[in-house]
Every structure is written in structure tokens, then in C-alpha cells.
Write a structure and sequence with these properties.
42% of the residues lie in helices and 18% in strands. The chain is elongated. A six-stranded parallel beta sheet has the order 7-6-1-8-9-10. Strands 2-5 form a two-stranded antiparallel sheet. The chain has a two-stranded antiparallel ribbon with strand order 3-4. The protein folds into two domains: 134 residues, Rossmann fold (3-Layer(aba) Sandwich), CATH 3.40.50.1000; 83 residues. Helix 1 runs antiparallel to helix 4 and helix 3 crosses helix 4. By secondary structure, it is of the alpha/beta class. Strand 3 and strand 4 form a beta hairpin.
């Protein structure tokens, strides 16, 4: 069946969280009076990964970096348990204030390219997704924005069914583009959509049927017409 709509994930698909986290770490360390050196940054990144990444069989299946907007302090407290609490609290506060993820370089051109051929929609687990799209000037590019919430967050099929209904297409008529192997690839396939996995991080998963892999968004329209 031909694709009639393209539905996107947001975080780590269209917007670049790792770069934003790197910048915010520098700001937070400065506010906490902690040294900005590789060992210090690596310790904090390790705790951020432990807090936001989900692994299965040693492989990453989801990176919920958006959680840092709502609870930034836990990774700081775990990374620096021996530091003065006021300093760690100040670092976490400044880290959260400095978190400002921007679009990947290939995002706008890809959206422009795809919009010439298909209506675009959004499905995200992040409760602030509409705000983020508005901040980035992208909200009017999507015919619908569906925010999945408990108990129907991705990868639950209901999330994809709701997004397809909002976009006015059946699941078999939709392609879903996302970075999370568990939430976006397996979730979309199990709900009957075609999945396009944006594997920016080189994770080593085997693709299920009805899924394709790309390492970035450029040229996505050529993948969708296969």
C-alpha cells in the first residue's frame, strides 16, 4: 500500500540532544565551580546515560533525553556525591536552564522535501513536544501533533493508532520516522506502520520486517518511495 502520510518522532530524530547536553554540561560545571575536564564530563555523561537510556541485551533501545527537562538533578547528585550539595544543586539548575536542543542540520531541508509529497504529522512521548515545535518554528509544518501519555506511550500500539487517526490515514498508509529502536521501530511495526529507523548512533540492531534503516534524514524521500 502506498504511503499517504509521514509521521515523525521529535527528540533525537529532528532535534540534537547530545550536542545540547554537552553545552549544558559546560554551563552547569561552571555554575557548580567544578572543573571542566574530560573525567568530570565523562562522569556526568555516564550518569545521564544511566538515567535516560534503556538497554536490552547490551544494546541501547531508547534514549529518553527529554526527561532531563523535568528531572535534571538526579544525574548530578549521582555523579558528584561527595561535592557540597549547594554546588551540585546550582550546577543542576544551570544545566537545566542551558538545555536548548536545536534542530539537526538535515532536519529542515528534509521536512521541506517530504512536505512536497506527503502530509507530515508528529507523534512524541515528550509532554513538551508542541512547545518545542513552536520554539523551533516548526509547529505549522505538521497537520497533527499527537502527544502519547500513560498508559499509551510509545511503543504501545494505541499511540500509533491515535497518531494515524489524527493524520487521517490508516496505519498501513503511514510511515513512521524515529530514532528509538524500541519505541519507534518495533512500536511502529507492531502497530502496522512502515518504520524508518534513523540510526544516528550506529546501534547494532537487526531490523524487523517493514522497517528500513538510515543514518540521517537526508534523502529520506528516496527511501520512502521504495
Amino acid at each position: 500500500m502506498a504511503i499517504e502520510a509521514v509521521i515523525f518522532d521529535l527528540d533525537d530524530t529532528l532535534i540534537d540532544w547530545p550536542s545540547a547536553i554537552d553545552r549544558a554540561i559546560e554551563a552547569g560545571l561552571s555554575a557548580a565551580g567544578l572543573p571542566s575536564e574530560p573525567l568530570t564530563r565523562d562522569s556526568l555523561w555516564e550518569e545521564i546515560r544511566g538515567y535516560t537510556w534503556l538497554r536490552r541485551g547490551g544494546l541501547v533501545v531508547d534514549r529518553a533525553h527529554w526527561k532531563l527537562l523535568f528531572e535534571p538533578q538526579a544525574p548530578w547528585e549521582r555523579a558528584f556525591p561527595l561535592e557540597a550539595k549547594p554546588a551540585v544543586a546550582a550546577g543542576a539548575k544551570r544545566f537545566r536552564e542551558a538545555l536548548d536542543p536545536q534542530l539537526f542540520e538535515d532536519a529542515v531541508a528534509t521536512l521541506d522535501d517530504l512536505a512536497a509529497h506527503w502530509p507530515l504529522a508528529m507523534l512524541s512521548n515528550a509532554p513538551n513536544a508542541k512547545h518545542t515545535l513552536g520554539r523551533l518554528g516548526l509547529l505549522d509544518r505538521f497537520v497533527s501533533v499527537t502527544l502519547a501519555d500513560d498508559p499509551y506511550r510509545k511503543p504501545h500500539p494505541r499511540a500509533f493508532e491515535d497518531a494515524c487517526a489524527a493524520a487521517g490515514v490508516a496505519p498501513a498508509q503511514a510511515a513512521y520516522v524515529g530514532d528509538s529502536f524500541a519505541n519507534d521501530v518495533e512500536g511502529a511495526v507492531n502497530a502496522g506502520l512502515r518504520a524508518i529507523w534513523v540510526d544516528r548512533f550506529g546501534d547494532g540492531h537487526m531490523l524487523p520486517p517493514r522497517a528500513l534503516r538510515v543514518d540521517g534524514l537526508a534523502g529520506l524521500s528516496h527511501v520512502l518511495v521504495r
